[in-house]
Task: inverse folding
DNA sequence: CATTTCACCTGGTGGC
DNA sequence: TGCCACCAGGTGAAAT
């Protein structure tokens, strides 16, 4: 469900609430999905660790873990481990009080020394949980460039020679990490580019317009706490507001806000794709 | 290798 | 009210 702005919002919210806290107990509900490495091993690598910080990497949330020593002496030290959370389509990462009702499809509950709980809830179970021991494994890295930080020549180079559609290319996480269906459609509309255009045939000027549009739409969405299309909420259970700013996404048949032409919906790369025939070329 | 399709899940919605 | 088809923010394996 969540794309870059939603994941960023959640990561910031969780970071503000659990940084410096300590994991004292771990409960995992299901022993099949969503564990990338075994739930027993993950529980062991989380228990009695301090939380150094929480950050977004692509669409993933990375929790930096330190040793259990008092936080004053672990301050500033590099993390010894990581807990990596991918929210899939319907995942939520919530910081709650221990007595808060446990939602259906809660797969993980981490009890913290402060008394709060960090909970992972995911009805569709497309999300993934992974732990890494940094003494033996590399820290998690996004496979592609971050759309908030990529510069214009690196951005253009991502698409050079590619025959797939620009929409499919935007969704390809090993090119750009963080763009999903909403922000692909919204950035293409704002850049005036049709989603079916071949990525490798866009001019440098068009690609630069696209990079700018994408950057602006992502930053705007982050400021509004993300898009709440159905069930997305941040770490406190609060909905975002960027869905009110959508110009094409899920506005099929409604008039384009620029020219009044009904917004079209097509299927592209297996995903619903929305655009304005008149404003996008 | 690049690109496309499909399976993986549950739940909400709207038509009949 | 029930049943059913269709749709949903993502990804990665399998097919092409």
Result:
């Amino acid at each position: 469900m969540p794309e870059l702005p939603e994941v960023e919002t959640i990561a910031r919210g969780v970071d503000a609430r659990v940084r410096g806290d300590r994991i004292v107990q771990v409960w995992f509900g299901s022993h099949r999905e969503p564990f990338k490495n075994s739930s027993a091993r993950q529980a062991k690598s989380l228990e009695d660790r301090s939380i150094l910080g929480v950050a977004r990497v692509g669409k993933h949330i990375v929790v930096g873990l330190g040793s259990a020593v008092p936080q004053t002496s672990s301050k500033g030290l590099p993390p010894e481990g990581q807990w990596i959370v991918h929210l899939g389509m319907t995942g939520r990462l919530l910081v709650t009080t221990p007595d808060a009702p446990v939602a259906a499809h809660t797969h993980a509950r981490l009890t913290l020394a402060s008394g709060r709980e960090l909970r992972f809830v995911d009805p569709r179970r497309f999300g993934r949980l992974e732990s890494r021991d940094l003494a033996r494994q590399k820290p998690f890295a996004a496979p592609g460039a971050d759309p908030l930080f990529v510069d214009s020549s690196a951005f253009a180079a991502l698409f050079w020679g590619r025959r797939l559609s620009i929409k499919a290319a935007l969704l390809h996480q090993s090119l750009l990490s963080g763009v999903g269906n909403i922000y692909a459609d919204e950035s293409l509309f704002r850049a005036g580019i049709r989603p079916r255009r071949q990525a490798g045939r866009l001019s440098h000027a068009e690609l630069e317009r696209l990079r700018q549009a994408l950057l602006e739409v992502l930053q705007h969405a982050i400021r509004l706490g993300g898009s709440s299309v159905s069930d997305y909420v941040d770490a406190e259970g609060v909905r975002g507001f960027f869905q009110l700013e959508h110009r094409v996404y899920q506005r099929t048949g409604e008039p384009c806000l620029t020219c009044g032409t009904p917004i079209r919906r097509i299927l592209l790369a297996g995903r619903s794709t929305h655009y304005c025939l008149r404003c996008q070329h």
